TrEMBL record:
It comes from the Bacteria. Residues 133-225 form the Lon proteolytic domain. This is Lon proteolytic domain-containing protein. InterPro entries: Lon_proteolytic, Ribosomal_Su5_D2-typ_SF, Ribsml_uS5_D2-typ_fold_subgr. Gene3D superfamilies: 3.30.230.10.
Length: 242
């Protein structure tokens, strides 16, 4: 009986650091952020959204298989519902994640234009990032729009020319929410050259768990927090820390 239990399929997935994408750049030959109705700046530096890559929702793993992944610092064993909260078939989950991404993009545009006091009837924003689902890029999309339109507000780049990464959902009024998987996302960020990582404040402890050397954590609870922190770094002033 114990042998049978050891090889029974368990409701867990294995996640690893995923891709990152510079929202100030292009994806598949098309700008990630396109703005019409207002002048757009040439930007320097990078704003990298981060992801995790996980085994599929319909995949199964046994206890011996999971044990081989449990203690690796570049992997995480997570409950299936923590990654695929919507449930359903693989196709239904993919559709749900793409719908969440579309909703997140709309909220990101609204938050950025609201921060800049620009009328969304006059300024239109189109966001394009293929093959990425879920809402966790919202904060970085908003920051990218702000950098394209206004920079740091004083003529410079919001990034200060740095490679900035981060994660966090965004609401239309600029509140930043938790996303999960941040310890893996910090590894993806550092792997791809980031020196600063913006993290939802409630996930500071998770982000610190396997923090790569040379990556500065900056906790935020709102879009305003994130902009002010990046402006402070550009002035050589200390930013909030976990």
């Amino acid at each position: 009986m114990f042998a049978a239990a050891a090889f029974a399929p368990l409701p867990f997935v294995v996640a690893v650091p995923g891709l990152t994408a510079d929202v100030l750049g292009s994806d598949q030959g098309k700008p990630v952020i396109t703005v019409s109705g207002a002048p757009v700046r040439d930007t320097k530096g990078q704003l990298r959204m981060t992801t995790i890559r996980a085994t599929g929702p319909s995949s199964t793993m046994t206890l011996p298989e999971l044990a081989g992944h449990w203690f690796k610092t570049d992997q995480a064993v997570l409950p299936r519902e923590a990654v695929y909260s919507s449930g359903g078939s693989d196709e239904e989950i993919e559709k749900h994640n793409l719908e969440e991404m579309a909703t997140s993009q709309s909220a990101a545009a609204a938050a950025a234009l609201g921060f800049l006091h620009k009328d969304p009837q006059d300024v239109k924003v189109e966001l394009n990032l293929a093959d990425v689902g879920g809402p966790s890029a919202g904060l970085l999309f908003s920051l990218g729009i702000i950098d394209k339109l206004d920079g740091d507000g004083s003529g410079g780049d919001l990034t200060g020319g740095r490679n900035i990464a981060g994660t966090g959902t965004i609401t239309a009024d600029g509140k930043v929410g938790a996303v999960g998987g941040v310890a893996l996302k910090t590894q993806a960020a550092r792997r791809d050259g980031a020196s600063v990582f913006l993290v939802p404040r409630d996930e500071c402890a998770d982000a610190q768990a396997e923090l790569p050397e040379g990556l500065q954590l900056v906790p935020v609870t709102s879009l305003t927090d994130a902009v002010n922190a990046l402006r402070a770094l550009n002035r050589g002033e200390p930013a909030p820390s976990c």
